[in-house]
Every structure is written in C-alpha cells, then in structure tokens.
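Example record for the data management plan.
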Amino acid sequence: MFKALFNILFPKVCYSCQNILADGEHTLCTDCRHRLPVTQFHFNNDASVCKVFYGRVKIEQATALLRFEKKGMTQKLIHQLKYKGQEPIGTFLGDWLGGDLQTLDAYKTIDIVIPVPLHKKKLKKRGYNQVTKFGQQLAAALQAEYMDNVLIKVTNTNSQVSKNRLSRWTNSETIFSVQSLDKIKNKNILLVDDIITTGATIESCATLLLRAENVKISIAAMAIA
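Corresponding structural encoding:
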C-alpha cells in the first residue's frame, strides 16, 4: 500500500518524453524505446564501429547500441545520464546491450569489462562515472569481471565533443595511463564508453591495454556519432 501511495505522489516518468511510466515500464516508455535509433550492428555483422579504428589499433569486435544525433533522443538520454545524475539510464542501456551480446558467440569469450575512466577531479565533482553502470551490466550479462582499476585518467580534460579530430587525438595521447598489466594478460577485454566520435579516446585506451601480454580488445559503446 505504501509503495502504491508513493507511486501516486512521486510517479516514475520516462526519461525521454517525461510521461508517466505504465506498470512494467522502466526508465523509458514503450513508445520512446521503439523510437530510439538502434543500430543492430552486432546482429547484422555490421563493421561500422570497427572501421573507425582500421589502421589505428587492432580491435576484435565492436558495436554501439544507438546512433547519436544532435538534439535527438540519444543525446537527450546521455545528457541526463552524464549531467543530471540519472544513473538508471546507464543500467537500462547496459541491460539492453548485454542481453543482445550474451546471445552472440563473438562476445561469449569476453573475460573482463573495462570502462573508459574519468579523472579523479571530475569523478569527485560528478559523483560517478557515467559508464560504470553500463559496464557493470554488460559484465554481468557476459559473466565477465568488471575492472575499473587498470585504466587511469591522469590528466583532466574538457569535453571532447566540440573539438576537431586533430585536437581530440592530440589530447588523447597523454591523458591515460595503465597499471597492473599482469591482471589482464591473456584476457579478452571489452572496453566500454558512452559515445564514439572520432574514436581517439578509445584508441588511446586500447593502445595502452595492448601493452599487456596476449590480450585482445573489443569495444561496446552506448552510441556512435
């Protein structure tokens, strides 16, 4: 009874359209979920994400759940996740993509899920890494270990979204470090992030992880621009 009263006084709303969620709906209403620009890359053997990294860093598998367009639904969701404290969005997207990937042989060999890290100052200010819940749900779905203490962001940087490709790459070369390489040797790693734009950030992280002995890197992102 208390739960029913609470729901009346503080109804859960869709993070996209702000309409009240119906029974059985979580995070997004059914209509908004169906209108999200889903890529289906991993089901269609589409190499669009892998092509971003051709000739730059060796990637085994790569996918993104959604397409990112300015002022679109995906941008609105990720903005709320990153800047409005709405961590359930990360859980929702991780559950969704994790449910997809656990059905595919190409991702059943993943041993470790590693998130692209935030600098400690930004982490303290925001209170969370927007990729954490997403990565944790992927790890749970793939029965893999979630490991956020291998990649470290050592230089605090501003958002990469408005920068051109050259400046993003220049900044990404020196802002990350890697530690405890022995923890990941001989492992298949899934590197996860929120948005893939030029791929410079993930390239930098993957290059560092590949310093470990006999590792393989795959990529999963919430969205690709």
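Summary line stored alongside the record: The longest strand covers residues 188-196.
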